[in-house]
Amino acid sequence: MYKSSLFLALTFVFFSCLQQQEKISSSTQLSKEEKIDSTKIKSLFNAALTQGESYEWLRDLTQTIGGRLSGSPEAAKAVVWGEQLMKSVGLDSVWLQPVMVPHWVRGEKEIAYYLNNGKQINVPICALGFSIATPKEGLSAEVIEVHSLEEAKALGEKMRGKIVFFNRPFDNTLINTFAAYGGCVGQRVQGAAVCGVYGAKGVIVRSMTNAIDDYPHTGTMSYGDLEPEQYIPTAAISSRAATILSADLKANPTLKFYFKQSCQTLPDAPSFNVVGQITGSETPENIMVVGGHLDSWDLGDGAHDDGTGIVQSLEVAALFKKNNFRLKNTLRVVFFMNEENGTRGAKKYAELAKLNQENHIGGLESDAGGHTPRGFSIDANLANTTLLQSWKKLLAPYGLHDLEQGGSGADISPLKAETVTLVGYRPDSQRYFDYHHTSIDTFDKVNKRELELGSASMASFLYLMDKYLYNNTPIKP
User: Fold this and answer.
1) 197, 230 contact by CB (below 8 A)
2) How big is the chain by its Cα radius of gyration, in Å?
3) Which of 83, 128, 132, 407 is nearest to 262 (CA)?
4) Which strands make up the sheet holding 359-365, listed edge to edge?
Protein backbone atom coordinates (compact mmCIF):
# COMPACT_ATOMS: atom_id res chain seq x y z
CA MET A 1 0.00 0.00 0.00
CA TYR A 2 2.81 2.39 0.96
CA LYS A 3 4.77 1.62 -2.22
CA SER A 4 1.67 2.19 -4.35
CA SER A 5 0.98 5.57 -2.73
CA LEU A 6 4.62 6.59 -3.09
CA PHE A 7 4.59 5.62 -6.78
CA LEU A 8 1.46 7.69 -7.40
CA ALA A 9 2.94 10.66 -5.56
CA LEU A 10 6.20 10.49 -7.52
CA THR A 11 4.25 10.15 -10.77
CA PHE A 12 2.22 13.25 -9.92
CA VAL A 13 5.39 15.22 -9.13
CA PHE A 14 7.05 14.02 -12.35
CA PHE A 15 4.21 15.10 -14.62
CA SER A 16 3.74 18.37 -12.71
CA CYS A 17 7.40 19.11 -13.37
CA LEU A 18 6.98 18.31 -17.04
CA GLN A 19 4.01 20.64 -17.26
CA GLN A 20 5.92 23.41 -15.48
CA GLN A 21 8.97 22.82 -17.69
CA GLU A 22 6.78 23.18 -20.80
CA LYS A 23 5.46 26.51 -19.54
CA ILE A 24 8.96 27.76 -18.74
CA SER A 25 10.55 26.57 -22.00
CA SER A 26 7.86 28.28 -24.04
CA SER A 27 8.35 31.65 -22.38
CA THR A 28 12.05 31.97 -21.55
CA GLN A 29 14.59 33.59 -23.83
CA LEU A 30 11.90 35.36 -25.78
CA SER A 31 11.83 39.05 -26.54
CA LYS A 32 8.82 41.15 -25.62
CA GLU A 33 7.42 40.87 -29.15
CA GLU A 34 8.11 37.14 -29.26
CA LYS A 35 6.18 36.67 -26.01
CA ILE A 36 3.21 38.32 -27.70
CA ASP A 37 3.63 35.94 -30.63
CA SER A 38 3.91 32.98 -28.27
CA THR A 39 0.61 33.92 -26.62
CA LYS A 40 -1.09 34.30 -30.00
CA ILE A 41 0.19 30.92 -31.17
CA LYS A 42 -0.98 29.26 -27.97
CA SER A 43 -4.46 30.68 -28.52
CA LEU A 44 -4.55 29.17 -32.01
CA PHE A 45 -3.62 25.74 -30.67
CA ASN A 46 -6.13 26.03 -27.83
CA ALA A 47 -8.92 26.89 -30.26
CA ALA A 48 -8.01 24.10 -32.70
CA LEU A 49 -7.90 21.46 -29.97
CA THR A 50 -11.13 22.52 -28.24
CA GLN A 51 -13.26 24.10 -30.99
CA GLY A 52 -11.82 22.56 -34.14
CA GLU A 53 -14.26 21.62 -36.91
CA SER A 54 -11.88 20.09 -39.45
CA TYR A 55 -12.46 16.48 -38.39
CA GLU A 56 -16.22 16.68 -38.90
CA TRP A 57 -15.72 18.48 -42.21
CA LEU A 58 -13.48 15.63 -43.30
CA ARG A 59 -16.02 13.06 -42.16
CA ASP A 60 -18.67 14.77 -44.29
CA LEU A 61 -16.42 15.01 -47.37
CA THR A 62 -15.25 11.41 -47.27
CA GLN A 63 -18.46 9.75 -46.11
CA THR A 64 -20.89 11.75 -48.23
CA ILE A 65 -18.86 12.13 -51.43
CA GLY A 66 -15.88 9.77 -51.22
CA GLY A 67 -13.22 9.57 -53.92
CA ARG A 68 -13.12 12.61 -56.21
CA LEU A 69 -11.21 11.91 -59.42
CA SER A 70 -11.02 14.92 -61.74
CA GLY A 71 -13.92 15.06 -64.20
CA SER A 72 -16.06 12.67 -62.17
CA PRO A 73 -19.54 13.36 -60.73
CA GLU A 74 -17.97 13.06 -57.27
CA ALA A 75 -15.48 15.83 -58.07
CA ALA A 76 -18.36 18.03 -59.20
CA LYS A 77 -20.18 17.34 -55.92
CA ALA A 78 -17.01 18.22 -54.00
CA VAL A 79 -16.91 21.64 -55.68
CA VAL A 80 -20.44 22.39 -54.49
CA TRP A 81 -19.55 21.04 -51.03
CA GLY A 82 -16.42 23.20 -50.84
CA GLU A 83 -18.18 26.38 -51.93
CA GLN A 84 -20.98 25.92 -49.39
CA LEU A 85 -18.54 25.10 -46.59
CA MET A 86 -16.42 28.19 -47.24
CA LYS A 87 -19.53 30.35 -47.15
CA SER A 88 -20.66 28.75 -43.88
CA VAL A 89 -17.33 29.64 -42.25
CA GLY A 90 -18.01 33.29 -43.06
CA LEU A 91 -15.16 34.19 -45.38
CA ASP A 92 -15.39 37.69 -46.85
CA SER A 93 -15.84 36.34 -50.36
CA VAL A 94 -16.10 32.94 -52.04
CA TRP A 95 -15.97 32.17 -55.76
CA LEU A 96 -15.25 29.45 -58.30
CA GLN A 97 -12.45 29.50 -60.88
CA PRO A 98 -13.40 27.52 -64.02
CA VAL A 99 -10.80 25.06 -65.30
CA MET A 100 -10.90 22.23 -67.83
CA VAL A 101 -9.52 18.99 -66.39
CA PRO A 102 -8.55 15.55 -67.72
CA HIS A 103 -11.25 12.89 -67.44
CA TRP A 104 -9.85 9.39 -67.07
CA VAL A 105 -12.13 6.60 -65.88
CA ARG A 106 -11.13 3.25 -64.41
CA GLY A 107 -14.03 1.13 -65.61
CA GLU A 108 -14.77 -2.26 -64.10
CA LYS A 109 -12.53 -3.78 -61.45
CA GLU A 110 -9.21 -5.06 -62.80
CA ILE A 111 -8.24 -8.74 -62.76
CA ALA A 112 -4.77 -10.33 -62.66
CA TYR A 113 -3.30 -13.77 -62.05
CA TYR A 114 -0.62 -16.17 -63.15
CA LEU A 115 -0.17 -19.95 -63.06
CA ASN A 116 2.68 -21.41 -61.04
CA ASN A 117 3.10 -25.19 -60.96
CA GLY A 118 -0.53 -25.55 -62.00
CA LYS A 119 -1.82 -23.28 -59.23
CA GLN A 120 -3.54 -19.98 -60.03
CA ILE A 121 -2.06 -17.08 -58.05
CA ASN A 122 -4.49 -14.16 -57.95
CA VAL A 123 -2.81 -10.74 -57.89
CA PRO A 124 -4.22 -7.51 -56.37
CA ILE A 125 -3.89 -4.99 -59.22
CA CYS A 126 -5.13 -1.57 -60.30
CA ALA A 127 -4.72 0.43 -63.49
CA LEU A 128 -2.53 3.51 -63.39
CA GLY A 129 -4.08 6.85 -64.26
CA PHE A 130 -4.03 7.65 -68.01
CA SER A 131 -3.25 4.04 -68.90
CA ILE A 132 -5.08 2.51 -71.82
CA ALA A 133 -7.18 -0.63 -71.42
CA THR A 134 -6.06 -4.12 -72.24
CA PRO A 135 -7.86 -5.92 -75.05
CA LYS A 136 -11.37 -6.93 -73.94
CA GLU A 137 -10.19 -10.47 -73.34
CA GLY A 138 -7.19 -9.21 -71.34
CA LEU A 139 -3.57 -9.90 -72.19
CA SER A 140 -1.11 -12.62 -71.24
CA ALA A 141 2.64 -12.79 -71.72
CA GLU A 142 5.90 -13.88 -70.17
CA VAL A 143 7.39 -11.51 -67.61
CA ILE A 144 10.74 -9.75 -67.47
CA GLU A 145 11.64 -8.33 -64.04
CA VAL A 146 13.68 -5.13 -63.80
CA HIS A 147 14.55 -2.81 -60.94
CA SER A 148 15.07 0.53 -62.68
CA LEU A 149 14.33 2.47 -65.84
CA GLU A 150 17.99 2.14 -66.81
CA GLU A 151 17.84 -1.64 -66.52
CA ALA A 152 14.74 -1.69 -68.73
CA LYS A 153 16.38 0.52 -71.36
CA ALA A 154 19.37 -1.82 -71.46
CA LEU A 155 17.08 -4.74 -72.38
CA GLY A 156 15.98 -3.00 -75.56
CA GLU A 157 14.35 -5.43 -78.01
CA LYS A 158 14.32 -8.22 -75.41
CA MET A 159 11.18 -6.54 -74.03
CA ARG A 160 9.21 -7.10 -77.24
CA GLY A 161 6.06 -9.13 -76.62
CA LYS A 162 6.74 -9.33 -72.87
CA ILE A 163 5.19 -7.80 -69.76
CA VAL A 164 7.87 -5.75 -68.01
CA PHE A 165 7.70 -5.95 -64.23
CA PHE A 166 9.28 -2.99 -62.40
CA ASN A 167 10.09 -4.24 -58.92
CA ARG A 168 12.09 -1.52 -57.22
CA PRO A 169 11.03 -1.27 -53.54
CA PHE A 170 11.31 1.73 -51.25
CA ASP A 171 14.66 2.27 -49.59
CA ASN A 172 13.53 1.69 -46.02
CA THR A 173 16.78 3.03 -44.60
CA LEU A 174 15.58 6.54 -45.52
CA ILE A 175 13.82 8.15 -42.57
CA ASN A 176 11.89 10.54 -44.80
CA THR A 177 9.53 8.26 -46.71
CA PHE A 178 8.92 10.96 -49.32
CA ALA A 179 12.59 10.59 -50.27
CA ALA A 180 12.04 6.84 -50.66
CA TYR A 181 8.98 7.55 -52.81
CA GLY A 182 11.00 9.93 -54.97
CA GLY A 183 13.58 7.19 -55.53
CA CYS A 184 10.98 4.79 -56.96
CA VAL A 185 8.12 6.74 -58.50
CA GLY A 186 9.90 7.24 -61.83
CA GLN A 187 9.23 3.60 -62.74
CA ARG A 188 5.51 4.19 -62.28
CA VAL A 189 5.40 7.44 -64.24
CA GLN A 190 7.84 6.62 -67.07
CA GLY A 191 7.82 2.81 -67.24
CA ALA A 192 5.36 2.56 -70.14
CA ALA A 193 7.16 5.27 -72.14
CA VAL A 194 10.45 3.39 -71.80
CA CYS A 195 9.05 -0.05 -72.61
CA GLY A 196 6.45 0.85 -75.22
CA VAL A 197 9.06 2.04 -77.70
CA TYR A 198 10.56 -1.48 -77.76
CA GLY A 199 7.25 -3.25 -78.28
CA ALA A 200 6.61 -4.49 -74.75
CA LYS A 201 3.10 -5.87 -74.35
CA GLY A 202 2.40 -4.28 -70.98
CA VAL A 203 3.92 -2.94 -67.78
CA ILE A 204 3.22 -3.83 -64.16
CA VAL A 205 4.80 -1.88 -61.32
CA ARG A 206 5.40 -2.63 -57.65
CA SER A 207 3.21 -0.31 -55.59
CA MET A 208 4.78 2.79 -54.07
CA THR A 209 4.77 1.93 -50.36
CA ASN A 210 6.95 0.96 -47.39
CA ALA A 211 4.42 -1.64 -46.36
CA ILE A 212 4.18 -5.24 -47.48
CA ASP A 213 0.44 -5.74 -47.97
CA ASP A 214 -2.28 -6.61 -50.48
CA TYR A 215 -3.38 -3.09 -51.45
CA PRO A 216 -2.31 -1.88 -54.89
CA HIS A 217 -1.47 1.83 -55.16
CA THR A 218 -2.64 3.74 -58.21
CA GLY A 219 -1.14 7.01 -59.46
CA THR A 220 -0.52 8.85 -62.69
CA MET A 221 1.63 7.60 -65.54
CA SER A 222 2.73 9.05 -68.88
CA TYR A 223 3.37 7.76 -72.38
CA GLY A 224 5.83 10.59 -73.01
CA ASP A 225 6.57 11.02 -76.72
CA LEU A 226 5.25 7.63 -77.81
CA GLU A 227 2.98 7.34 -80.80
CA PRO A 228 -0.53 6.14 -79.84
CA GLU A 229 0.09 2.75 -81.46
CA GLN A 230 2.98 2.27 -78.99
CA TYR A 231 0.80 2.81 -75.92
CA ILE A 232 0.68 -0.24 -73.65
CA PRO A 233 -1.55 -1.10 -70.65
CA THR A 234 0.08 -0.20 -67.34
CA ALA A 235 -0.93 -1.22 -63.83
CA ALA A 236 0.35 -1.46 -60.27
CA ILE A 237 0.35 -4.66 -58.22
CA SER A 238 0.47 -4.84 -54.44
CA SER A 239 3.83 -4.96 -52.69
CA ARG A 240 3.18 -8.45 -51.31
CA ALA A 241 2.20 -9.71 -54.75
CA ALA A 242 5.37 -8.17 -56.20
CA THR A 243 7.50 -9.96 -53.62
CA ILE A 244 5.83 -13.30 -54.34
CA LEU A 245 5.93 -12.85 -58.12
CA SER A 246 9.65 -12.06 -57.98
CA ALA A 247 10.32 -15.27 -56.06
CA ASP A 248 8.15 -17.33 -58.42
CA LEU A 249 9.93 -15.90 -61.48
CA LYS A 250 13.25 -17.12 -60.13
CA ALA A 251 11.85 -20.65 -59.91
CA ASN A 252 9.83 -20.44 -63.14
CA PRO A 253 11.22 -17.75 -65.51
CA THR A 254 8.76 -18.59 -68.30
CA LEU A 255 5.55 -18.20 -66.32
CA LYS A 256 2.86 -16.10 -67.98
CA PHE A 257 1.10 -13.18 -66.30
CA TYR A 258 -2.48 -12.25 -67.22
CA PHE A 259 -4.28 -9.00 -66.52
CA LYS A 260 -7.39 -7.23 -67.72
CA GLN A 261 -8.45 -3.61 -67.30
CA SER A 262 -11.04 -1.45 -69.06
CA CYS A 263 -9.93 2.13 -68.30
CA GLN A 264 -10.17 4.96 -70.83
CA THR A 265 -9.49 8.66 -71.25
CA LEU A 266 -12.55 10.75 -72.12
CA PRO A 267 -12.60 14.35 -73.42
CA ASP A 268 -11.58 17.04 -70.94
CA ALA A 269 -14.33 18.04 -68.53
CA PRO A 270 -15.28 21.39 -66.95
CA SER A 271 -14.48 21.84 -63.27
CA PHE A 272 -13.45 24.51 -60.77
CA ASN A 273 -11.00 25.63 -58.14
CA VAL A 274 -12.90 26.75 -55.03
CA VAL A 275 -11.52 30.02 -53.67
CA GLY A 276 -12.37 32.08 -50.60
CA GLN A 277 -10.61 34.85 -48.74
CA ILE A 278 -10.36 37.04 -45.69
CA THR A 279 -9.46 40.52 -46.90
CA GLY A 280 -6.39 42.08 -45.28
CA SER A 281 -6.90 45.04 -42.96
CA GLU A 282 -3.80 47.04 -43.92
CA THR A 283 -2.34 45.75 -47.18
CA PRO A 284 -5.17 43.80 -48.83
CA GLU A 285 -3.31 43.83 -52.13
CA ASN A 286 -0.75 41.43 -50.63
CA ILE A 287 -2.04 37.86 -50.83
CA MET A 288 -1.07 34.76 -48.87
CA VAL A 289 -2.48 31.45 -50.12
CA VAL A 290 -3.24 28.39 -48.03
CA GLY A 291 -4.63 25.29 -49.65
CA GLY A 292 -4.64 21.67 -50.74
CA HIS A 293 -6.25 19.73 -53.56
CA LEU A 294 -9.92 18.88 -53.71
CA ASP A 295 -9.58 16.00 -56.16
CA SER A 296 -8.39 12.54 -55.18
CA TRP A 297 -7.94 9.12 -56.70
CA ASP A 298 -11.00 6.94 -57.00
CA LEU A 299 -9.99 3.82 -55.08
CA GLY A 300 -10.55 5.17 -51.57
CA ASP A 301 -12.09 8.30 -50.07
CA GLY A 302 -9.09 10.61 -50.47
CA ALA A 303 -8.92 11.18 -46.71
CA HIS A 304 -5.19 11.75 -46.20
CA ASP A 305 -4.66 12.67 -49.87
CA ASP A 306 -5.82 15.35 -49.72
CA GLY A 307 -8.96 15.67 -47.67
CA THR A 308 -6.89 16.51 -44.62
CA GLY A 309 -5.12 19.33 -46.47
CA ILE A 310 -8.41 20.81 -47.62
CA VAL A 311 -10.04 20.91 -44.20
CA GLN A 312 -6.87 22.08 -42.46
CA SER A 313 -6.55 24.98 -44.87
CA LEU A 314 -10.09 26.15 -44.22
CA GLU A 315 -9.61 25.58 -40.48
CA VAL A 316 -6.74 28.08 -40.62
CA ALA A 317 -9.17 30.80 -41.70
CA ALA A 318 -11.74 29.65 -39.14
CA LEU A 319 -9.16 29.82 -36.35
CA PHE A 320 -8.22 33.38 -37.24
CA LYS A 321 -11.89 34.35 -37.14
CA LYS A 322 -12.55 32.55 -33.83
CA ASN A 323 -9.60 34.31 -32.21
CA ASN A 324 -10.47 37.69 -33.76
CA PHE A 325 -7.10 37.94 -35.49
CA ARG A 326 -7.01 40.88 -37.89
CA LEU A 327 -4.61 39.89 -40.65
CA LYS A 328 -2.71 42.70 -42.36
CA ASN A 329 -2.59 40.85 -45.66
CA THR A 330 -5.32 39.03 -47.53
CA LEU A 331 -5.55 35.33 -46.71
CA ARG A 332 -6.84 33.26 -49.60
CA VAL A 333 -7.99 29.67 -49.10
CA VAL A 334 -7.85 27.59 -52.28
CA PHE A 335 -9.21 24.11 -52.90
CA PHE A 336 -7.26 23.23 -56.04
CA MET A 337 -8.72 20.85 -58.62
CA ASN A 338 -6.75 18.19 -60.54
CA GLU A 339 -3.50 17.89 -58.60
CA GLU A 340 -3.46 14.12 -58.97
CA ASN A 341 -3.38 13.85 -62.75
CA GLY A 342 -2.54 17.14 -64.35
CA THR A 343 -2.26 20.10 -61.88
CA ARG A 344 -4.59 22.03 -64.16
CA GLY A 345 -6.12 23.86 -61.20
CA ALA A 346 -2.75 25.06 -59.96
CA LYS A 347 -1.75 26.26 -63.41
CA LYS A 348 -5.06 28.06 -63.91
CA TYR A 349 -4.80 29.76 -60.51
CA ALA A 350 -1.28 31.03 -61.29
CA GLU A 351 -2.33 32.07 -64.79
CA LEU A 352 -5.22 34.15 -63.45
CA ALA A 353 -3.07 35.63 -60.71
CA LYS A 354 -0.65 36.89 -63.34
CA LEU A 355 -3.43 38.08 -65.66
CA ASN A 356 -5.09 40.02 -62.83
CA GLN A 357 -1.72 41.38 -61.67
CA GLU A 358 -2.21 40.02 -58.17
CA ASN A 359 0.61 40.40 -55.68
CA HIS A 360 1.20 37.08 -53.96
CA ILE A 361 3.74 37.31 -51.17
CA GLY A 362 3.48 33.78 -49.81
CA GLY A 363 1.76 30.43 -49.85
CA LEU A 364 1.41 27.36 -47.66
CA GLU A 365 0.26 23.96 -48.93
CA SER A 366 -0.87 20.90 -47.01
CA ASP A 367 -0.58 17.74 -49.14
CA ALA A 368 1.42 15.27 -47.06
CA GLY A 369 -1.31 13.71 -44.95
CA GLY A 370 -2.90 14.47 -41.61
CA HIS A 371 -0.37 12.87 -39.26
CA THR A 372 1.54 14.43 -36.34
CA PRO A 373 3.09 17.83 -37.23
CA ARG A 374 6.87 17.92 -37.63
CA GLY A 375 7.53 21.25 -39.35
CA PHE A 376 7.67 22.98 -42.70
CA SER A 377 9.80 22.96 -45.83
CA ILE A 378 10.70 26.39 -47.21
CA ASP A 379 11.11 27.45 -50.83
CA ALA A 380 12.20 31.09 -50.69
CA ASN A 381 15.10 33.45 -51.22
CA LEU A 382 17.91 33.40 -48.68
CA ALA A 383 16.67 36.35 -46.62
CA ASN A 384 13.15 35.01 -46.25
CA THR A 385 14.38 31.48 -45.55
CA THR A 386 16.52 32.83 -42.72
CA LEU A 387 13.58 34.84 -41.41
CA LEU A 388 11.27 31.84 -41.32
CA GLN A 389 13.87 29.64 -39.67
CA SER A 390 14.26 32.24 -36.90
CA TRP A 391 10.75 31.32 -35.71
CA LYS A 392 11.83 27.88 -34.58
CA LYS A 393 11.92 28.77 -30.89
CA LEU A 394 8.28 29.88 -31.12
CA LEU A 395 7.24 26.69 -32.89
CA ALA A 396 9.42 24.05 -31.23
CA PRO A 397 7.17 23.74 -28.12
CA TYR A 398 4.55 22.31 -30.49
CA GLY A 399 6.85 19.71 -32.02
CA LEU A 400 7.62 21.86 -35.08
CA HIS A 401 11.38 21.37 -35.15
CA ASP A 402 11.92 20.93 -38.89
CA LEU A 403 12.26 24.21 -40.79
CA GLU A 404 14.35 23.20 -43.76
CA GLN A 405 14.82 24.33 -47.33
CA GLY A 406 12.86 22.19 -49.78
CA GLY A 407 9.84 22.04 -52.02
CA SER A 408 6.50 23.55 -51.09
CA GLY A 409 3.81 21.68 -53.01
CA ALA A 410 2.57 20.95 -56.50
CA ASP A 411 -0.36 23.37 -56.31
CA ILE A 412 1.40 26.50 -55.06
CA SER A 413 4.73 25.97 -56.84
CA PRO A 414 3.52 27.71 -60.04
CA LEU A 415 3.49 30.92 -57.96
CA LYS A 416 7.24 30.65 -57.38
CA ALA A 417 9.15 33.90 -57.80
CA GLU A 418 12.06 35.68 -56.15
CA THR A 419 9.79 37.65 -53.80
CA VAL A 420 7.23 34.89 -53.12
CA THR A 421 7.81 32.70 -50.07
CA LEU A 422 6.35 29.22 -50.48
CA VAL A 423 6.02 26.69 -47.66
CA GLY A 424 5.00 23.04 -47.44
CA TYR A 425 3.41 21.69 -44.26
CA ARG A 426 5.34 18.56 -43.20
CA PRO A 427 3.70 16.07 -40.82
CA ASP A 428 5.31 12.80 -39.82
CA SER A 429 5.71 10.69 -42.95
CA GLN A 430 6.03 7.15 -41.59
CA ARG A 431 2.44 6.01 -42.21
CA TYR A 432 1.53 8.14 -45.21
CA PHE A 433 2.51 5.65 -47.91
CA ASP A 434 0.54 2.88 -46.21
CA TYR A 435 -2.58 4.67 -47.53
CA HIS A 436 -1.41 6.82 -50.44
CA HIS A 437 -3.53 6.25 -53.60
CA THR A 438 -5.19 3.11 -52.20
CA SER A 439 -8.63 1.82 -51.30
CA ILE A 440 -7.77 2.21 -47.59
CA ASP A 441 -7.21 5.99 -47.72
CA THR A 442 -10.37 6.40 -45.68
CA PHE A 443 -11.67 8.59 -42.87
CA ASP A 444 -10.97 6.03 -40.13
CA LYS A 445 -7.22 6.33 -40.86
CA VAL A 446 -7.16 9.98 -39.73
CA ASN A 447 -6.60 10.86 -36.07
CA LYS A 448 -8.67 13.81 -34.87
CA ARG A 449 -6.03 15.31 -32.59
CA GLU A 450 -3.24 14.99 -35.15
CA LEU A 451 -5.45 16.67 -37.73
CA GLU A 452 -6.23 19.57 -35.38
CA LEU A 453 -2.60 19.99 -34.38
CA GLY A 454 -1.82 20.34 -38.08
CA SER A 455 -4.43 23.05 -38.56
CA ALA A 456 -3.03 24.99 -35.61
CA SER A 457 0.53 24.57 -36.86
CA MET A 458 -0.39 25.98 -40.25
CA ALA A 459 -2.33 28.86 -38.72
CA SER A 460 0.61 29.71 -36.45
CA PHE A 461 3.04 29.80 -39.35
CA LEU A 462 0.74 31.98 -41.42
CA TYR A 463 0.21 34.30 -38.46
CA LEU A 464 3.96 34.86 -38.36
CA MET A 465 4.18 35.24 -42.13
CA ASP A 466 1.43 37.82 -42.04
CA LYS A 467 3.08 39.79 -39.27
CA TYR A 468 6.69 39.75 -40.45
CA LEU A 469 7.01 38.63 -44.06
CA TYR A 470 5.56 41.58 -45.90
CA ASN A 471 7.78 43.98 -43.95
CA ASN A 472 10.86 41.99 -44.91
CA THR A 473 12.76 43.33 -47.91
CA PRO A 474 13.83 40.30 -49.94
CA ILE A 475 17.53 40.03 -50.62
CA LYS A 476 18.90 38.02 -53.50
CA PRO A 477 20.95 35.03 -52.27
Assistant:
1) yes
2) 25
3) 132
4) 93-105, 264-278, 329-336, 283-293, 359-365, 421-427, 373-379, 402-405
Cβ proximity of 394 and 464 under 8 Å: yes
Q: Supply the residues annotated as catalytic.
A: 339
The CA distance from 286 to 421, in Å, is: 12
pLDDT tens digits for the chain (477 residues)? 545 555 554 455 445 544 544 553 444 588 999 999 999 999 999 999 999 999 999 999 999 999 999 999 999 999 999 999 999 999 999 999 999 999 999 999 999 999 998 899 999 999 999 999 999 999 999 999 999 999 999 999 999 999 999 999 999 999 999 999 999 999 999 999 999 999 999 999 999 999 999 999 999 999 999 999 999 999 999 999 999 999 999 999 999 999 999 999 999 999 999 999 999 999 999 999 999 999 999 999 999 999 999 999 999 999 999 999 999 999 999 999 999 999 999 999 999 999 999 999 999 999 999 999 999 999 999 999 999 999 999 999 999 999 999 999 999 999 999 999 999 999 999 999 999 999 999 999 999 999 999 999 999 999 999 999 865 544 443
Are the beta carbons of 101 and 71 closer than 8 angstroms?
A: yes
Q: Which domains does the chain have, with CATH numbers?
A: 31-104+267-471 (3.40.630.10), 109-262 (3.50.30.30)
d(CA 56, CA 85): 12
